[in-house]
Amino acid sequence: MAPQACAPSAGEAAGARAANLDGVPVPESSTPFGVYVHVPFCASRCGYCDFNTYTADELAGSGSGTSPDGWLDAVRRELAGAAAVVGERPVDTVFVGGGTPSLIGAERLGAVLDAVRAEFGLAPGAEVTTESNPESTSPEFFAGLVDAGFTRVSLGMQSAAQHVLAVLDRRHTPGRAVAAAWEARAAGIGHVNLDLIYSTPGETDDDLRASLDAVLSAGVDHVSAYSLIVEDGTALARRVRRGELAAPDDDVAAARYEIIDDTLSAAGMRWYEVSNWATGDAAACRHNLGYWLDGDWWGAGPGAHSHLAGRRWWNVKHPARYAAMLAAGEAPEAGYELLGAEEQATERVMLRLRLATGLPLDLLDASGRAAAGRAAAEGLLEPAALDRAAPDGGRAILTRRGRLLADRVVTDLLTAVPA
Ligand SMILES: C[S@@+](CC[C@H](N)C(=O)[O-])C[C@H]1O[C@@H](n2cnc3c(N)ncnc32)[C@H](O)[C@@H]1O
Ligand code: SF4
Predict the structure, then answer these.
(1) Which atom of ligand 2 lies closest to the CA of 49?
(2) Which of 65, 152, 236, 349 suits a disulfide with 191, CB 3.0-4.6 Å?
(3) β-strands 222-227, 276-278: how paired?
(4) Domain limits of the chain?
(5) Read out DSSP for 134-146?
(6) What confidence tens digit (pLDDT) does each residue in 248-278 have?
(7) How far apart are CA 293 and CA 369, in angstroms?
(8) What pLDDT does 325 receive?
(9) Ligand 2 neighbours (beta carbon < 6 A)
(10) Which amino acid residue places its CA nearest to atom 2 of ligand 2?
């Protein structure tokens, strides 16, 4: 689909963006390049969620820029400006996230993908994902996604227990996520993920086992499982503070993680990142691997974050301001930071250690490698992988116990990371 006539020319938009990109090094073209597009709409707000998303009531009266079509216009403008800055660089992965992308329908999601295609082009075999909420999907929705070129869907299942879904304020019924996964596959979506949340107050081990049974009955090739985080400022945090709900317990969360890992492993899935399991390499989420492996990505949409060659920036959060800035020919940037060598080294350790492929020991200095040796002696890292004589120079790979204590291992290694 062609950009709307009222969109600024790529040159105008690029001028606005380039003013904010002074001194940015030109990214290496061999680095994977992703585009993230943020959809800031939800039918209602789940009590635990602090993502940048708005209900229709919250946006009422804030102008036409905050309608789904106004948002789409603004995203097209941002992508036109992005392409003028980035230059010719086909996109390896696209991820439309939210918020609730399925709420805006397959046609608008297809229009987003058309804009990415028109502005950058898609690399052969590009991975194209959209998040979706089970209750706003249907066979027709998935057929529309396939027609548009989406290859992957990530569904927010969270749990199969009604009382857990109720605590989380989720709108879908327990069986809907599994049914949606089958519908997606039947429509021709090649890769389907289900998101789970565990250790919700009131959830039992049996509830979690039932959720995992449901996940396995859905025939998906990817599962993400996150321990419930009580985010400040959310309705969940207020309920915990008032004593209405118990705070999630760390020991319970650790035991639940083991149940998840045991169950998914027994079913033939492998962890490839601490919170992510897939049936094989081809089912891993390439877009997220780009985040974890120093890739470049342009994040379009309100509040979206971007990273190009050591420069990181983020957009204004409110959809009205975002749309207004783009309509005025301005880049919607709210702030930026340039990552120094030390920060990049720190991030590499934090992110790569969470991957099953591990952290190359070459990224640590002698004292960092000594810390890795001590972590292995404590059972937190795989001792055999630390072999410096290995062709890859050895790697720090978390054991399962290490995965449960990943933050601590990172801290231990980071005290010794070279600048
Ligand atoms: C922000 S949602 C966006 C996609 C979609 N609206 C949904 O709810 O599935 C993406 C995922 O983040 C996870 N998530 C969000 N807030 C969380 C929290 N406080 N604790 C744990 N997981 C959370 C959920 O698993 C959710 O599926
Ligand atoms: S549907 Fe997803 S994005 Fe929307 S409030 Fe709930 S968790 Fe957050």
Answers:
(1) 8
(2) 152
(3) antiparallel
(4) 23-292, 353-415
(5) GGG--HHHHHHHH
(6) 999 999 999 999 999 999 999 999 999 999 9
(7) 20
(8) 98
(9) 42, 45-46, 49, 51, 53, 98-100, 133, 156
(10) 99
